[in-house]
Specification:
It is a single chain. This protein has 5 helices and 7 strands; from the N terminus they run αβαββββαβαβα. The protein has one domain (3-136): Rossmann fold. The two termini are 27 Å apart. The protein is an alpha/beta fold. The strands form 2 sheets. A 5-stranded parallel sheet has the order 2-1-5-6-7, sandwiched between helices. A two-stranded antiparallel sheet has the order 3-4. Strand 3 and strand 4 form a beta hairpin.
Length: 141
């Protein structure tokens, strides 16, 4: 199996096990990619939980200051923060028991990804969930 096939299998597994997505860095500005992608995910049947300490509500959903404050079970953490801010987010994601972590285009932290993978969490770095979802055209379980 070549690496591209393995990557595709991981993405399939992620989409196949995801219903609730916490978006860290979700903006309330409709021109921002995080807002557009959050809206797209909601429109495609996912439960989106905003994580942004600077806002109270976005896309009709209550926003939380961090992952640890979310009262619901989360399947995926989708990260829209700079690469140097990823590690504490990954540490919180491990604590709440997510199945996957998705770092958007341009966001990479190999050390944090290794920690997550060792904790049994599937990780995607430097890729767009919107683009991959459109390619797969899947719906949540």
């Amino acid at each position: 199996m070549n690496p591209d096939q393995n990557y595709s299998i991981i993405i399939d597994k992620i989409f196949g096990s995801t219903n609730a997505i916490a978006i860290v860095g979700l903006s309330d500005d409709p021109t921002r990619p995080s807002y557009r992608i959050g809206s797209y995910l909601i429109d495609n049947g996912y439960k989106v939980i905003p994580v942004n300490p600077k806002i109270n509500f976005v896309l009709g959903q209550k926003s939380y200051p961090d992952l640890l404050k979310i009262p619901d079970q989360i399947d995926m953490v989708n990260i829209f923060r700079r690469s140097e801010l990823v590690k504490p987010i990954v540490e919180e994601a491990i604590k709440i028991g997510v199945k996957s972590i998705w770092m958007q285009d341009g966001i990479e932290d190999s050390n944090a990804a290794k920690i997550a993978t060792e904790a049994g969490i599937m990780v995607i770095m430097d890729d767009c969930i919107y683009r991959q979802h459109k390619l797969k055209s899947v719906k949540p379980n």
